[in-house]
Amino acid sequence: MVHKYLIFSPREITHLPGYINPSLLTKSITAFELITAVMWRCRTIALDYKVNTKVRLIFTINARGRWKSALPIPHGYYRNALVYTIVETTVGDLCGSPLVRTIELIHKAKADMSLERMRSTLDMMALLRGRPTLPTQHVYWVSDIGHIGDDTVDFGWAEWVGGGMPVPKLSSFHTRCKDRHGEESITVSMLLPGSVMDKFANEIASWLNKDNGDLLMF
């Protein structure tokens, strides 16, 4: 297994919506949704699953968002308050349909997350504590941690500089950085077998209209 970090510059993030017909969207797209949809698709192709295999995308939602007033989060609690949601489809649907189809599946998963479902998820996680973890085969886990902490929390010590890069394990992480041109960019981690990583890089390069060697990947 090898891990890599892929940098999406503002130019690349602007390039990707060109694959989407905006008239087919029910709402606007975030950079996280767009990059996640492309990464999930390229990763699935690289892993060479059978076309009828069910694959899942699991990503985090900030529980402090639309449910903030209804959640019993103690005042002054600054740690994570996240809930997971799942998108499920087949390899054939994910890799054979237009990208907008995947984006809409992500939008639906977000819209379906209610306060009642969030509480049900927490109850299930409590029941599973100490038991074997959920199966991870055919699953792509991803979290956006680009806005956790950084310069939005003032501890009164000094100006925030950075917190380092997370080592990719089970999940991929979206973080923020500056690219070689000094532009604010998004870095996404990925963990795959070495031979699969090469195929994944080729797939990503084709989406970005680049050669593999031109990818900002380290």
From TrEMBL:
InterPro entries: CAT-like_dom_sf, Plant_acyltransferase. One of its GO terms (molecular function) is acyltransferase activity, transferring groups other than amino-acyl groups. It holds the Pfam family Transferase. It comes from the Eukaryota. Belongs to the plant acyltransferase family. This is Uncharacterized protein. It comes from Hordeum vulgare subsp. vulgare.
